[in-house]
Specification:
Blueprint: H1 6-17, H2 21-34, H3 41-51, E1 62-63, E2 76-92, E3 97-107, E4 110-116, H4 119-126, E5 135-145, E6 151-155, E7 160-163, E8 179-180, E9 191-201, E10 205-209, E11 218-220, E12 223-226, E13 230-232, E14 235-245, E15 250-256, H5 257-264, H6 276-286, E16 290-300, E17 305-315, H7 318-327
Parallel strand pairs: 1-2, 4-6, 8-9, 15-17
Antiparallel strand pairs: 2-3, 2-5, 3-4, 5-6, 5-7, 9-14, 9-16, 10-14, 11-12, 12-13, 14-15, 16-17
């Protein structure tokens, strides 16, 4: 994967060749058939772009937004706001030693890591010339994909930056940065990502919610009421408790809304309401499933244990799991 999304390739071909989306997709389908589905949809789209002479990568200087970063870009220019600056670290490899600084920068499309390798910028960080909240225009950077599949911007001796360029401001897309952690190392109030195996699934519980904001509604004489949206039609929402294990320990995870469907691999958990038989079937199907869960760690005072409330659930990247096994 090099970071160009299928839809972006499609849009690029459409725009440059002036042909309809349906036509482009038809060509991609034919290509897939021709290659007996040996390649991905994205792969087929790349081939079609090549055949039609549509350049997907700009060589040379490229102004980019965070969500456009991909490893084929050379000499990237990007305007971003400094979200976080991490400690200066020293490194030593066979060929050289030196210092490196990781920062997190963002724009209205997302955030990414900026890795500084050159002493000029590292000194500026050290001297406090660049701070959290400053705007930086970086140039001459290259892009690398890290082992969590995120794109990183790297600035070496060909790169440079302008700190707080005049007349520029940047709005950063809000997000919570989560750190990948072992379950045994989780602490109360952590925002963390854990990767492991689903070891137990409890029968989902349901509550009446507001269709606008998904919050719990209260039943009064003539119907359901949301504290914020007044009288509403109630909508059933599922809550799912699971036990999740990553080999270092296990933790109970609570999932709401879409995350319930993602864990259970079902269209709508409400179909399982008062249907123990169907739930048992689902339970059997998903036992041992491997997931990547991001969420917030809370203390359950009643049981005196830590639990996680899931913000996001994804199928685990097989590469990540393989890495885990090798390391341990
Ligand atoms: Zn509401």
């Amino acid at each position: 994967m090099n970071g160009i999304k299928y839809d972006d390739i499609l849009a690029r071909i459409e725009k440059e060749k002036g042909i309809s989306k349906e036509e482009v997709e038809g060509k991609i389908k034919d290509k897939l058939k021709q290659l007996s589905d040996l390649i991905s949809k994205e792969g087929a789209a790349h081939i079609i772009a090549n055949e039609l002479g549509v350049k997907l990568y700009d060589v040379g200087v490229k102004k980019a937004k965070v969500n456009q970063l991909n490893t084929m870009l050379k000499s990237v220019e990007l305007l971003g706001k400094v979200v976080q600056i991490y400690e200066i670290r020293e490194f030593k490899v066979a060929s050289r030693e030196g210092r490196v600084v990781n920062m997190l920068i963002g724009d209205e499309t997302g955030s990414c890591r900026l890795v500084l390798w050159d002493e000029k910028q590292i000194k500026e960080v050290e001297e406090g010339k660049v701070k959290q909240g400053d705007v930086v225009r970086v140039s001459g950077c290259y892009v690398k994909q890290n082992n969590m599949n995120y794109m990183e911007l790297h600035m070496g001796n060909k790169g440079d930056w302008v700190i707080n360029p005049e007349g520029e401001s940047v709005e950063v897309k809000s997000f919570t940065e989560t750190e990948r952690k072992d379950i045994k190392d989780l602490k109360e109030n952590d925002n963390a990502t854990i990767v492991g195996t689903l070891v137990q699934v409890f029968e989902p519980r349901f509550y009446d919610s507001c269709p606008e904001c998904s919050k719990k509604v209260e039943y009064r004489d003539d119907g359901f009421y949301c504290a914020q949206h007044g009288k509403v039609e109630s909508k059933a929402q599922g809550v799912l408790n699971i036990v999740f294990d990553d080999g270092t320990e296990n933790i109970r995870v609570v999932c709401f809304r879409d995350n319930v469907n993602k864990v259970l691999d079902v269209e709508n958990v409400v179909d399982l309401k008062e249907n123990t038989e169907k739930f048992t079937e689902v339970q059997r199907k998903i036992a041992g499933k491997q997931l990547e869960i991001s969420g917030r760690v809370k203390k359950n005072d009643f049981f005196n244990r830590l639990e996680m409330t899931a913000n996001d659930v994804k199928d685990a990247n097989p590469k990540d799991l393989a890495g885990e096994i090798k390391e341990s």
